């Protein structure tokens, strides 16, 4: 059976969210997004790195940018990049196209419905109820392969609006260039050749998946999560949003809300870079909150190695005093293992809840 669309639920005007969307107490946001906004200037903030001089002829300028990118990747596993080189116009067009798709009636979007249960994740979807816990996220999404170009299945891309394909293709090309820059910076910081990480991650076979997250208004945002806490299975993730706050990073024991900075591109370090670097770079735990007044939309590009790429700590970052912290696994094994672990943890939590209720 197709899962309920969160958008349809939200539009039905319900005052209380269905039980499957109510997070366990320990997962609930302590303050809803609108309250968080007032205190967002307090405490530690996600690092902001201005990379305008990335290609500068001045070696000192380049060195300083590289130092800041590596520092943010080590300490936070996330950063907001300014002056990243992707034009404002392209970003506006990408966001207008994604919004135009989600502005279609749900029945139109259903024509692109994915079949997650059958392993077909490309298309329009909502999180499936996991048998173990039945917990759901307050979001619908659109997911498709963006790169490499020759592996795209254009039947899974939205046909409306007409501009979607051109603009998403152009954005993908820009992100692909940034992948090379960031992986080069991180490789150098580890003392390996600049091309090394990109090569291990598949080189020209490196994959990029686009996920447009659509978070409808939620009548009880303090009880729900748009995306539950997770680290990304990717190597890197690039994120844009429509300037509605919601992304939070777990840092030094607290959830920190990402500031909405016009023009900024958020970059997450994912599990694959954490593994390659033997934990020198951090795959940051993050989650997405929802909002009572505003629809939130975000655009995530996940950069992944091919499924069969074997990823383990690079030999240069391992020695007697730095033993490998991760076993080498193919990307497919990593993904399967993580999903299995999550399902198992949810099953255990649910069993414990049931036991508590019956005693
Ligand atoms: O290739 C990837 C890499 C990622 O890091 C992720 C991904 C795909 O998809 C996750 C996802 C997609 C669709 C869903 O319904 C989910 O519940 C998760 C994404 O969260 C991310 O980890
Ligand atoms: O919407 C966001 O800000 C976060 C999205 C996310 O973490 C994801 O799609 O995996």
TrEMBL record:
Entries under Gene3D superfamilies matching the protein: B-lactam Antibiotic, Isopenicillin N Synthase, Chain
Gene Ontology MF terms: dioxygenase activity; L-ascorbic acid binding; metal ion binding
Fe2OG dioxygenase domain segment(s): 204-305
Pfam families named among the record's database cross-references: 2OG-FeII_Oxy, DIOX_N
InterPro entries, per database record: DIOX_N (IPR026992), IPNS-like_FE2OG_OXY (IPR044861), IPNS-like_sf (IPR027443), Oxoglu/Fe-dep_dioxygenase_dom (IPR005123), Plant_2OG-oxidoreductases (IPR050295)
Keywords: Dioxygenase, Flavonoid biosynthesis, Iron, Metal-binding, Oxidoreductase, Vitamin C
Superkingdom classification of source: Eukaryota
Keyword Secreted: no
Co-factor requirement: L-ascorbate
GO biological process terms on file: flavonoid biosynthetic process; pigment biosynthetic process
Family that this chain belongs to: Belongs to the iron/ascorbate-dependent oxidoreductase family.
Protein name: Fe2OG dioxygenase domain-containing protein
Species this chain originates from: Picea sitchensis
